[in-house]
Amino acid sequence: MKSMPLFTVLTPTYNHENYLEDCILSVIGQTFQDWEMIILDDGSTDKTPEIAEYWAKKDSRITFIRQPNQGVFRLAETYNKGLKIAQGRYISILEGDDLWETIKLQRQKEVLENNPDVVVAWGRAIKIQAETRRNLGTIPGKDVSKPSTWTNKPAGTILDAFYIENMIPAVTVTMRKSALNETGGFIQPINFPTTDLPTLMELALKGEFFFDEKVLASWRVYGEQTTKLYPVKMLNQRWQYCRDHFTRLNPVIKERLTVDEKVINQHFKNRMMVAYALSGRYKLIRKEFNSARQDYIRAIFYPSFSNPVWRLRAITGLFFSFFHKDVEGLSRAMGKVSYKS
After folding, report:
1. Taking residues 69-81, what's their average pLDDT?
2. SS3 state of residue 91
3. Could you tell me if 260 and 129 lie in one domain?
4. Minimal CA–CA distance to 327: which of 305, 303, 310?
5. Which of 173, 17, 15, 22 is nearest to 94 (CA)?
6. Is the separation of the CB atoms in 79 and 42 below 8 Å?
């Protein structure tokens, strides 16, 4: 009789033909080999299904499931489909365009097996530009020291960070399945295009978190990612979700936090101007010049007095939009990160 694997790797994928094989090989190459991988294809129109099917036939630990396209706003349904058949004690996330370091599962196995109160293990990830493979730095940055709240002891204290920014790269996350099942599985509010933050916020009420200082994975970024297509919508939805989550929070947990609803609202109000400026920049790259211009104008006149550099960037972007140009060449010339390959 086949024994249950210790880890289940959930890999949602959509049109990742250029990346999926590397993703799979990064799992096969793990120093710890007691795993299963469930690849969930969301109706890809390229060669992604053929690649997944080839490796599923080649390695019995890999399961391939194909479904009609559901899209990012129904991502939790896809994840929960995989969770329902997952046999592992621990659930790891690895989307089809990302990669793991070979020691990832081994390090997290040691943490989770030796610390039964830990419900989430995570670590640093390298952010790389998909087309050029340029290293864009680590998340969290190597200059970021670990705050005491990141251990989530007592339960809920990590929400101090989550209500402001999600510092956890999903590609590094492994969750204890028993705790994940207690929350009802992966969580995704209506019109919220990701599952990681809402799910982690619920797990924060279940037990401790463990942050590994090592780089455990690589996260690819490129122009058509959700974060670049919907920066304003994502920030608005996150603002609403964080505000609602805080309102519902047990008063005992609230007493453990330093943030309150006023702090949350002020943070997101300040970030909204940046989101409009970023949205304009991404739209310039996609040659959506009229729409980019509208976003830049919103950024310039947004009622926030923080982030003056981003307001200047919005003014620059607005100028470029009239000439149907993007600002990536200027960014490169100034030694800044370009969002275009």
Report:
1. 93
2. strand
3. no
4. 310
5. 173
6. no
